[in-house]
């Protein structure tokens, strides 16, 4: 079910521009964290990603004139920050298929959560970003293209490749249990 994007009022001193930063963060913080968690696969990295992206956005908040562009701007900043981290992460550390942390016990089925994280982690970062925005944030192809700064055709091809990879992985098959 798609989470509704709340209608945010513009800053009255700016003539209907971007909403107040605090208002935006209060309204959209949880959804941004969820997207970041799906991108990073780690609760703490997700918090860092959201905070870093929001810090970058806060510095330029007064320049945003179109309230409709706020969501795309913040999401694009978050995905770009995630991509930058991925490019810079090489420090001798190698990715692994086993996560060292215990799954969150509050989740109804930790096995499914783990399978989704592993399956997403195996996707290239561009495909992962498209899948997260399209299917977890429930954005349209056009909204995803705008958020990532790519064409709608690229969104479609990345989605197709990602879904094929996920189907072939075998991690997300339904069981008879």
Automatic annotation (TrEMBL):
Transmembrane segments: none annotated. Belongs to the sigma-70 factor family. ECF subfamily. It comes from Nocardioides simplex. Keywords: DNA-binding, Sigma factor, Transcription, Transcription regulation. One of its GO terms (molecular function) is sigma factor activity. Residues 31-90 form the RNA polymerase sigma-70 region domain. Residues 114-166 form the RNA polymerase sigma factor 70 region 4 type domain. It holds the Pfam family Sigma70_r2. This is Putative RNA polymerase sigma factor. The keyword Transcription applies. GO terms for biological process: DNA-templated transcription initiation. InterPro entries: RNA_pol_sigma-70-like (IPR039425), RNA_pol_sigma-70_dom (IPR014284), RNA_pol_sigma-E_actinobac (IPR014325), RNA_pol_sigma70_r2 (IPR007627), RNA_pol_sigma70_r4_t2 (IPR013249), RNA_pol_sigma_r2 (IPR013325), RNA_pol_sigma_r3/r4-like (IPR013324), WH-like_DNA-bd_sf (IPR036388). The keyword Nucleotidyltransferase does not apply.
């Amino acid at each position: 079910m798609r989470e509704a994007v709340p209608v945010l009022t513009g800053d009255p001193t700016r003539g209907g521009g971007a909403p107040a930063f605090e208002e935006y963060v209060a309204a959209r913080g949880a959804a941004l964290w969820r997207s970041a968690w799906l991108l990073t696969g780690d609760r703490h990295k997700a918090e860092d990603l959201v905070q870093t992206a929001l810090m970058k956005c806060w510095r330029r908040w007064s320049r945003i004139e179109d309230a409709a562009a706020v969501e795309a701007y913040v999401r694009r900043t978050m995905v770009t920050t995630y991509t930058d981290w991925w490019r810079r992460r090489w420090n001798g550390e190698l990715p692994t298929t086993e996560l060292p942390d215990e799954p969150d016990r509050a989740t109804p089925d930790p096995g499914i959560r783990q399978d989704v994280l592993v399956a997403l982690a195996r996707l290239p970062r561009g495909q992962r970003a498209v899948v997260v925005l399209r299917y977890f944030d429930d954005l349209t192809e056009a909204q995803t293209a705008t958020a990532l700064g790519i064409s709608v055709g690229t969104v479609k091809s990345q989605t197709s490749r990602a879904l094929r990879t996920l189907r072939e992985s075998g991690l997300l098959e339904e069981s008879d249990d």
